[in-house]
Amino acid sequence: MLVMTYNIRAGLGIDDNRSLLRVADVIRAAGASVVCLQEVDRKMPRSGLTDQAKWLGERLGMESVFQPNLAVGPAGFGNAVLSRYPVLSAKSHSLTSNDEQRGLMEVMVAAPDINLTVFCTHFGLDAGERLVQAGESAAFVREAHSPAIFCGDLNEIETGTAVQRLLTESGLHDLAKDAAEPENTYPVDNLQARIDYILGTPDMKGTAATALDSPASDHRPVLVEIESISMAR
Fold first, then answer.
1. What confidence score (pLDDT) does residue 41 get?
2. CA-closest candidate to residue 157, choices 203, 193, 116
3. Residue 198: how many other CB atoms lie within 10 Å
4. What is the rounded distance in angstroms from the CA atom of residue 71 to the CA atom of residue 121?
5. Does the structure show a pLDDT above 80 at 231?
6. Are strands 148-153 and 114-122 parallel, antiparallel or unpaired?
7. Is the pLDDT of residue 194 over 90?
8. N or C: which end of the chain has fewer CB within 10 A?
9. Contact 185/224 with Cβ under 8 angstroms?
10. What's the mean pLDDT in 201-207?
């Protein structure tokens, strides 16, 4: 199973050109079956009033689920999950936020031979805020009743206190590190840090991993090949 996480910056590329088609081309070329997206617009004026999650899902032939963490009437901004597998359920969890509202999306998909819980999030910019969000997210992961993956832009390097809290309290591990030395993901035009992650429960293992080069956003998409090594949690 090929999984991607990608902060798409609402389709605004590192060259300041906004193109959702370019984002779709990156996802299609990667061939991922499950895609977790951050900074997704729905009917926002800056992105031409497009429902970006729906548009991408239809363009790519995938089911789409959107979590509007910021909502202004029918418009919104948040996270999304695209899946080639049937979506069985979806939940939206709010995370404690000091400034911009953040959330954790929980989607169960019927992957081959297993029902897989997919978490998608985008942590805040403040270190203290991230630490709280990590603890809240870990609690939701512990409540999941199937093999799970946790994807997102955590706005922090691997040794940061929030990432470490998330790993320690959730039992998740870094699936990219199972397969290779992880690559930096941000910013695309001057790579300095890895802040985008695909994590998994102990019954999941990463067998290949890469960060893709593309000007479609200021983040590189992360791609991990995952296999289930246990049917029980």
1. 98
2. 193
3. 25
4. 16
5. no
6. parallel
7. yes
8. C
9. no
10. 96
Q: Is residue 187 reached through a cis peptide bond, with omega within 30 degrees of 0 on the bond before it?
A: yes
pTM for this predicted structure? 0.96
Which DSSP letter does residue 74 get?
T
Question: Which single residue is written with the structure tokens 């840090």?
Answer: 193
In sequence order, the 6+-apart residues with CB closer than 8 A to the CB of 16 are none
In terms of Cβ atoms closer than 10 Å to its own Cβ (0-12, 13-18, 19+), residue 154 is: buried
Determine the Cα–Cα distance for residues 207 and 230; give it in Å rounded to an integer: 15
How do residues 120-159 score in pLDDT, each as one tens digit?
999 999 999 999 999 999 999 999 977 999 999 999 999 9
Encoded tokens for 183: 């690559």
Residue 146: both structure tokens together: 């199937």
CB 151, CB 118: distance < 8 Å: yes
Mean per-residue pLDDT of the chain: 96
Which parts of 60-147 are beta strand (E)? Answer: 63-72, 75-83, 87-95, 102-111, 114-122
Q: Averaged over 106-119, what is the pLDDT?
A: 96
**Which string of b and e fits 62-87 if b means at least 16 CB within 10 Å?**
bbbbbbbbbeeeebbbbbbbbbbbeb
